[in-house]
Design brief:
The chain is built from ten helices and 14 strands. β13 and β14 form a beta hairpin. Among the domains are: 82 residues, Helix Hairpins (Orthogonal Bundle), CATH 1.10.287; 127 residues, Histidine kinase-like ATPase, C-terminal domain (Heat Shock Protein 90, 2-Layer Sandwich), CATH 3.30.565.10. 51% of the residues lie in helices and 18% in strands. This is histidine kinase. It is found in: Membrane.
Length: 464
């Protein structure tokens, strides 16, 4: 099956890809601001045009009212083959300024005129009642009986004012957009300075491996302050994880070197000179125990390392798993002249089946190794698993130390073990959001693994 073709970036995307984030933010802000200013300027221009036109129309309407009251009806001579209406303006009608008033016949011929006269009396005008604009003049035409009253005024002043307003709005818009671009870049630069600090710190850490370096904390509680605080917390966690990994690697190397050194010594001793077959058999038999201990240590290290991987929780029947693990530990119990007593009730938990088996095995093996008395009790009730053994148990003050890898309690150096059992159980408990709870009683010591409460499942009671 052929791979889908990758989309090629457009020329605009290529250009924008070369720009810094500051310039992109400034351009975006400038575009939005420019559209806002231009739309606002267009609105101001349109509103001014309507207001001035309305004022001019009001003047024409008032003039028309005065002119209508000044019409005198009388007989007139026939002109141009038409029979004109007998009407004229009285002598008191004197329009001010550049107003022009005409009395028209139904055919548009001028019967009478007052005010500023720019056209001849033979001029014919279109008879269209209402307001209109004709040849740079604003015109109001009203019907008066069988005649028409025409009042007009030039729009030169209005057009000149609107042209000046348009120029002012255009120049002002360009100036404001330029100022907005500068302000937008300044704000973007100021806002992105903490991001630059984060980037520089990350580059420094990657280049020098100095995980102790931190990002300068931005003041306040805004987004940048949260970003720098979160990055510093992440670096704190990363530094802690790296240090733990380094300590773990050093300790693991030390723990592995000891059995390997012993094994190498025995091999050198066996190969130092020719020996009888029985001597070789004895030497190899002794090495098997060292290899088995080394294998167990390696498996423990791998299991502990896998606890950092993402978990995949599933429903686990705790009592059934506990019974299986207890059965597999019977040989170890008999070797120590001990017995495992089960007290099991049905219980379903969200965990990992293999991990639960390993955790129960480690707790049982610790109880069988370090506990006193003849009996170890494995109890399961709902979402709680508990292993109880005889004896005082470890020093309570040393409990947190015993949860670290390769740490062992006082007085147990003669007992075989790697110091990974409790550390692995503690790591697994954290993966499942469970708790590892120690309890010291009268002559007993218990370790409980408490899981979060899960939905109960009806199961038959398991008793052994």
């Amino acid at each position: 099956m052929s791979q889908p073709a990758l989309l090629q970036p457009t020329p605009i995307q290529k250009v924008l890809g070369r720009l810094s984030l500051r310039l992109k933010l400034m351009l975006g802000y400038a575009i939005v601001f420019a559209l806002t200013v231009l739309l606002g300027g267009a609105g101001v221009y349109y509103a001014a045009q309507r207001a001035l036109t309305a004022s001019l129309d009001t003047t024409l309407r008032e003039t028309a009212s005065v002119a209508q009251a000044s019409i005198d009806q009388h007989e007139d001579e026939e002109r141009d083959g038409e029979v004109p209406e007998p009407a004229d303006f009285n002598s008191e009608l004197k329009p001010s300024g550049d107003l022009s008033i005409e009395l028209l016949s139904s055919g548009g011929s001028v019967l009478a005129r007052a005010g500023k006269q720019e056209d001849s009396l033979d001029q014919r005008y279109p008879v269209i009642p209402g307001f209109s604009t004709e040849d740079s003049r604003r015109v109001l035409t009203l019907r008066v009986d069988d005649l028409y009253l025409r009042v007009s005024r030039p729009t030169d002043t209005l057009s000149g004012f609107l042209e000046t307003l348009a120029q002012l709005l255009l120049v002002g818009s360009v100036f404001m957009i330029a100022v907005a671009c500068g302000a937008g870049y300044w704000l973007a630069n100021r806002a992105l300075k903490p991001v630059d600090a984060v980037a520089r710190t990350a580059e420094s850490i990657a280049a020098r491996g100095d995980y102790a370096e931190r990002v300068p904390q931005s003041p306040g509680t805004d987004e940048m302050a949260r970003l720098t605080r979160t990055v510093n917390l992440m670096l704190d966690g990363l530094a802690g994880t790296i240090e733990r990994e380094k300590d773990f690697a050093r300790t693991a190397a030390h723990e592995l070197r000891t059995p390997l050194t012993v094994l190498r010594g025995r091999l050198d001793l066996a190969l130092e000179r020719p020996r009888e077959a029985a001597e070789y058999q004895k030497a190899l038999t002794g090495m098997v125990g060292r290899v088995e201990a080394l294998t167990a240590l390696t498996e423990g290290l791998l299991a502990l390392a896998r606890t950092d991987a993402p978990n995949e929780l599933e429903e686990v029947e705790l009592a059934g798993v506990a019974a299986q693990v207890a059965e597999s530990c019977e040989d170890m119990a008999r070797a120590g002249d001990k017995h495992i007593r089960l007290d099991l009730e049905p219980g379903w938990v969200q965990a990992e089946g293999e991990g639960v088996q390993r955790a129960i095995r480690n707790l049982l093996e610790n109880a069988l190794k370090y506990g006193s008395g003849q009996e170890v009790v494995l109890k399961v009730a709902a979402h709680r698993l508990e292993v109880t053994s005889g004896g005082p148990g470890p020093d309570p003050a040393q409990w947190s130390r015993l949860l670290q890898p390769f740490e062992r309690g006082a007085g147990v150096q003669g007992v075989s073990g790697s110091g990974l059992g409790l550390a692995l159980v503690s790591a697994l408990a954290r993966r499942w959001n469970a708790r590892l709870v120690p309890e010291w009683g009268e002559g007993t010591f218990s370790v409980a693994l408490v899981f979060p409460v899960a939905d109960p499942r009806p199961e038959s009671l398991l008793v052994r």
